[in-house]
Amino acid sequence: MNSSLPNDGNRDPTQLRSHRWFGPDDLRSFGHRSRLKGMGIDDTDYRERPIIGILNTWSDLNTCHSHFRERAEEIKRGVYQAGGFPVEVPVMSLSEMLMKPTTMLYRNLLAMETEEVLRSHPIDGAVLMGGCDKTVPGLLMGAISADIPSIFLPAGPMLPAYWKKTTLGSGTDAWKYWAERSAGNLCDGDWHEIENCIARSAGTCMTMGTASTMACIAEALGFTLPGASTIPAVVAEHSRLAVATGRAAVEIAWARRSPSRLLSPDSFHNAMVTQLAIGGSTNAIVHVIAMSRRAGYPVTLDDYDRLSQSVPLLLNLRPNGQYLMEDFHRAGGLQGLWLQLRDRLRLGGLRVGGGTLEDSMQSGQIIDEDVIRPLSNPIVPHGGTCVLRGNLAPSGCVIKTSAATHSLLQHRGPAVVFEGYADLKQRIHSPELKVTPDSILVLKGAGPVGAPGFPEWGMLPIPEKLLKQGVRDMVRISDARMSGTSYGTCVLHVAPESAIGGPLAWVHDGDIIELDVPNRRLQLCVSEELLQQRQQQWSSAHTVPSRGYLRLFSQHVTQAHEGCDFDFLEGSDPGLEPNIF
């Protein structure tokens, strides 16, 4: 493989993709040009220039992206500076906090929209504006499939939050203080004060949740400019990044630097190593698998587990550690962290702005070794995220051991079973619930098909009567996901899911379950004969939606270990360019 992407764009305007719309001297192109002129756009604005689509996921209902109107204008400035013509195109904004039942239900819809917006319009290159959890994989999946030159602008993390003398991290500290309130240790007034200050600015969660994880993965894959993944959302440096990204978009359009020329098996190797070293969200495993399958370099759970056994967790960031994203940025960011991982990375991985991963690391430095730990002092020496298998999860499941209680990583206990989220919500805090600290909480019906949409229900709440006894963690098992900002001994993504007849569906109250993370095993301790009997007696309670997108989703979504993409969207075929008659 070449050490860098050749700039084979010869700046011949007739070779631009948009020339097919605007260049010919025919009636159809006359119509295209005349409608632009109806908007006040002159020939000199766009003729013989790359047209750069700015795919903006701004929304009044998406806090993470509330600064994107301003950033879009800054991107345009960069595009103009580099001699391109910017066009802003709104695409679906997936607001993690406000969309129900889960933004994961709509990740594939954004991916489809991104792919079709890029393919159907006269766009030579694109800037993808995202940040809030599912917008990142959705935009990247669509761009990979459309295979049009694209560069990603991360939203950036919000500023650190403060309550009295305490530094707060969004998400992680919400779970922590809610548990204390449920235990009777936090008054309503304090809880209200925390609510008022925990989200301090525009931007994504400043912990290592899914948003920050995916921004780092986007940079590891080569889709961003160097250092882009950790810059806080509302600082001047982020505005300068937006302008620089606009300039770069014009260059990649001329060079025709498409995702298929950027991505390789090395790219996804680097993404996985980065995710493990930063203690990234388990959600990212699903997204990386989905992106890799679209690119034609499929990643598996076994790939993750193999790397997990050798890659240390080096980033001291909540929920795995102490600090927040701005601290990571000031400590050296990804370029600094990668310096510690040279022997585990594939340094020839290509970057959208040109050069390789090794080139990107040249300016790297580690400024604070308590934030970015040296190899001699890791947060966890290896295995921060592990893949388990057994008769309860034959296709695999995951656990983030770096955010779990060590003493629970080998545990046997009786199951307390909830047949769905409604059942969980109704009974979990009942004084009559038969549960002890040794119990294992089991939630069914929370997978891609069953929920539907694979929501973040995997951090099952600790029953209030146990919280009041001082219990703060238990083994919890589900076919759901968990917020990347969460923590606890939570076994997630159990596959196949219960709604389609996975073994999780056959668990009964009182069954003994054995969790053995060191040996990568999750076992339902019931005889094979009894399991077969339960399987024969089982029938799905899941009802296929009658219409619309939900019906499409239920019929075509793949399982967690396959990326939860639509089966008809996998593969590296970019499809046909639109006919222009």
Summary tags:
eight-stranded mixed beta sheet, 13% strand, four-stranded parallel beta sheet, 581 residues, Glucose Oxidase, domain 1
Protein architecture, described:
This protein has 581 residues and is an alpha/beta fold. It has 3 domains: 43-160 and 200-360, no CATH class; 162-197, no CATH class; 386-542, Glucose Oxidase, domain 1 (3-Layer(bba) Sandwich). It has 21 helices and 14 strands. The strands form 3 sheets. Strands 7-8-12-11-10-9-13-14 form an 8-stranded mixed sheet. A 4-stranded parallel sheet has the order 2-1-3-4, sandwiched between helices. Helix 4 links the parallel strand 1 (51-56) and strand 2 (85-90). Helix 12 packs antiparallel against helix 13 (283-295). The protein is globular, with a radius of gyration of 24 Å. The model is unreliable at 1-8 (pLDDT under 50).
Strand order of the largest sheet: 7-8-12-11-10-9-13-14
Radius of gyration: 24 Å
State the shape: globular
Give the helix proportion (percent range).
Answer: 25-40%
Look at the helices and sheets and give the structural class: alpha/beta
Query: How widely separated are the two ends?
Result: 39 Å
What is the total number of structural domains? 3
Report the total helices: 21
Mean pLDDT comes to 95
Beta-sheet strand percentage? 5-15%
The main pleated sheet reads as: 8 strands, mixed
Low-confidence stretches: 1-8
Work out the number of β strands: 14
What is the secondary structure topology, with strand pairs?
Blueprint: H1 19-22, H2 27-37, H3 43-46, E1 51-56, H4 68-81, E2 85-90, H5 104-120, E3 125-130, H6 135-146, E4 150-154, E5 161-163, E6 166-168, H7 172-182, H8 188-197, H9 210-221, H10 236-255, H11 259-262, H12 265-278, H13 283-295, H14 301-308, H15 325-331, H16 333-339, H17 357-360, E7 386-390, E8 393-399, E9 410-418, H18 421-427, E10 440-443, H19 464-467, E11 475-478, E12 490-495, E13 512-516, E14 521-524, H20 528-537, H21 548-556
Parallel strand pairs: 1-2, 1-3, 3-4, 9-10, 10-11, 11-12
Antiparallel strand pairs: 5-6, 7-8, 8-12, 9-13, 13-14
